[in-house]
Each structure stands twice: as structure tokens, then as C-alpha cells.
Amino acid sequence: MPINHSSPGPLARSAMAYVLAGGRGSRLHELCDNRAKPAVYFGGKSRIIDFTLSNALNSGIRRIAVATQYKAHSLIRHMQRGWNFFRPERNESFDILPASQRIAGASWYAGTADAVYQNLDIIESYNPEYIVLLAGDHVYKMDYEPMLQQHVEQKADITIASLEVPVKEASHFGVMHVDENDVVIDFVEKPQKPPHVPGNPAVALASMGIYVFNTKFLIDQVRRDAADPHSTHDFGKDIIPYLVKYGKAVAHPFSRSCVRSREEASVYWRDVGTIESYWEANIDLTAVVPQLDLFDHNWPIWTYAEITPPAKFVHDEQGRRGIAISSLVAGGCIVSGASIRRSLVGTGARVHSYAFVENSVILPAVDVGRGARLRNVVVDKGAQIPPKLVVGEDPELDAERFRRTENGICLITQHMIDRL
Fold first, then answer.
1. Location of site Could play a key role in the communication between the regulatory and the substrate sites (predicted)?
2. Phi, psi for 188 (deg, rounded to 5)
3. Which residues are annotated as part of the binding site for alpha-D-glucose 1-phosphate?
4. Do 145 and 161 contact (CB within 8 A), yes or no?
5. What's the pTM?
6. Chain centroid to CA 277: how far?
7. CATH number 2.160.10.10 given to 312-418
8. 289-319, pLDDT tens digit by residue?
9. CATH of domain 11-286
10. Taking the CB of residue 396, how many other CB atoms lie within 10 A of it?
11. pLDDT tens for residues 36-66?
12. What is the C-alpha to C-alpha distance for residues 219 and 217, in angstroms, rounded to an integer?
């Protein structure tokens, strides 16, 4: 049964969410040429970071700070437009914290811990009792209140959200061993040979990059780490292993706080850090009952609500009929005598007559030319697809012109189009 999240818990009101959103998204390749990974579009109209920020807001947290770094303009502009409704007179705050040499000798954030250290004065000025430290580049729905409650009940120094993942995928995560009380007894960051859960050699217990601290304790730890010349100033590599060894680290199973509607059968968390995983997670939304329910009014995903007219479908002739089947089509789109199947079409896109789009993720403001045929593609924002261009039918030709994955997903950007 879904959890009732109607009223914010008291601990969330005493917490500040600190979001680390400086990720390069290198495995997304050209999709992150002009934007950080948290700013990448997802689900037709949202950005990846909207899920983390919405989780904090829906959990009842009213103080949020976002540390940005890599190619942050698109991300900052999105947050200024879509997350500017916090009011200081209600004891709310929303701070955007680019790396800006705010302390002597500092430049870029050297690591995730340094991204907190360089902004300690801002954290201290709000004086929250707890810090919920979050990654801004994952897609999931989570109520942080149960995690805060566990942190307090178990008197933890750090509480780490954990997720069971296949061992073959665990080398991308920090991996934990826990005892019967969820106390972490061992932690290794991105191991080449990940240890498995006792009794289940196919599964490892991974850190989700979500941590809860008492604020004063966190401040002490990042200051200690900043003074260590041998540290890389990273939570996963330095602070967490130190606390596992010298403090009390507790794991919080994601299943206890994952938000699910009646339509969602299992816990949902996605990294979407590769072209294929990004394509797959978006395409899954077109299913009759998708694994991620974006229509859950009890846990809305907030974003910048661009003012657009409704999507429009025109022409009704044989071979030239504007239709979309098993697809999500955002506002401002015009499907003019084209056929769209099992695809996402972002805000303000145009798909012209006789075009065919299937199993594809079309980002906002894309123009698909007359007679083009696109299958299994991700088209970057604003790309102008030439008339009669065919992608997804000739693997060798696709690989010459675009970025093609092993499983045949093609990423198309305007720069690639210009080289044709």
C-alpha cells in the first residue's frame, strides 16, 4: 500500500537539504556538452534535478541549497525560473551556490565534501538541526522524513540511504556491509570487485549518495577533512570510510521511504547516467503502467511551468495523419500529419508531415523535417532534423554520422546534423 505523505514530519522542518549538482555527466557524452547532468531534460518537460528538489519539498523541507559547478548556466536558469517561490518570511530559503572562491585560496570545488566546506557560513547562518545531503542527478521519489527519524532513533553520526543493486553494476557505487541493526561495518567506494550481500552473491548493498547528518557534526567533519592534506575531500572516498571506522554509520533501506502510488509495484531509482539508461528510463514512461508514476498528485514533480498552448495534432488523410500512440507529448508541440509511437516529445517540438518517430526521446524545441524516419534515437534540444533523414535502419551509416551505442540507440545533436 502507498505511504500517506499528507503532512510533513517535524524533523523535516528542522532540516536543510543540501544538493550536490555539479556533475559533468561524461557518460551522457554530447548531451552534456552545454549543460550539467542535473539539468538534462527528463520525462518530456522536467529536468533530472527536479526529482531531488521535489522530494525535499514534498518531504516538508523548506530550506534548500544547491551547489553547482560544471557548465551551470542552464541549471541555474532553470532553478531561477522554476524554484523561485520560497519565501523568507515563512522561514523558507533556496540558495544557488556556484563555486565562487568564497574562502581564501579556494577555486573550484575539489570534491563533494569541499562543496560543503566552502559554503559552511551559509549553512551556519540558517542553523538547521539536520542536513540532508543529496545528489542532484538521480530519478526517484523518496520521503526523507523516515530516514531522518531513523537517524535520530539510532543516534547515528551519519545515516546512508542504501539500495540493493546487481553485483555487476555495483562498481559504480559505494558498497556497504551492514549488521543486523543496519549499522555499517564496512564501506568501499566504487570497488572493481564489489562485495555481495551475505547469502546472495548476485546482489550488493549500494550507497545512493543520500546522507543525513546532525549539522554541527557535519561541520566538524568537513573542517577536519579540509585540514587533511592527504584527503581528496570527497564524502564517498574520505568522510564515509572515516566515519564507518571511527563513528557510527547506519544504513537506511530505500524501501522504507520510497514513495509509491497505487500504480507503482516496486521501488524505483535510476541513475540515467548513460545514453542507453537515459533512453530506457524515458521510454518506460510510455508504458500503460510505467514503473515511475508521474501522474501521482500526492507527490508532484515540481518544475519550471513554461507557458505553452496545448499540443496540437492536425491532418487526417491516408498516410498523412497527425497521431501519437503510447507516447507523451508536451505542451506547445505540433504534430502535423506525422506518426509518433512509443516516444516522448518535449515542449515546443514540431513533427512535420509524413515523418515517423518510434521508440525515441525528442527533447524540447526539436524540428523533425517532412518525411524523416527516426527510430531508437535521443534528439538533443533544438536540433533541426532535415527532411527525409533516416536514422535507426542502417547501423553502419548511423555509427558514421551520430553517436550510436552498442544496443543501437543513437544520440543526435545539432552539431552532428551540421556535419552531414
1. 69, 108
2. -135, 135
3. 109, 174, 189-190, 207
4. no
5. 0.94
6. 12
7. yes
8. 999 999 999 999 999 988 999 999 999 999 9
9. 3.90.550.10
10. 7
11. 999 999 999 999 999 999 999 999 999 999 9
12. 5
pLDDT at position 6, please? 46
pLDDT digits (tens, 9 = 90+) for 137-157: 999 999 999 999 999 999 999
DSSP 236: I
Q: Quick check: 144 and 59 in contact, CB under 8 A? A: yes
Kindly write down the DSSP assignment for every residue of 56-77, as one continuous string: HHHHT--EEEEEE-TT-HHHHH
* Three-class DSSP category at 280: helix
CA atoms within 13 Å, Cβ hemisphere of 270: 24
Distance CA 188, CA 401 (A): 40
Where along the chain do its domains lie? 11-286, 312-418
**Per-residue pLDDT at 208 exceeds 70:** yes
3-state secondary structure of 313: strand
Give the residue numbers of the binding site: 109, 174, 189-190, 207
Do β-strands 130-135 and 203-214 pair in parallel, antiparallel, or remain unpaired? antiparallel
Q: How far is 399 from 271, CA to CA, in rounded Å?
A: 25
Banded model confidence at residue 1, pLDDT cuts 50, 70, 90? very low
Phi-psi region of 91 (alpha: psi -120 to 50; beta: other; left: phi over 0): left
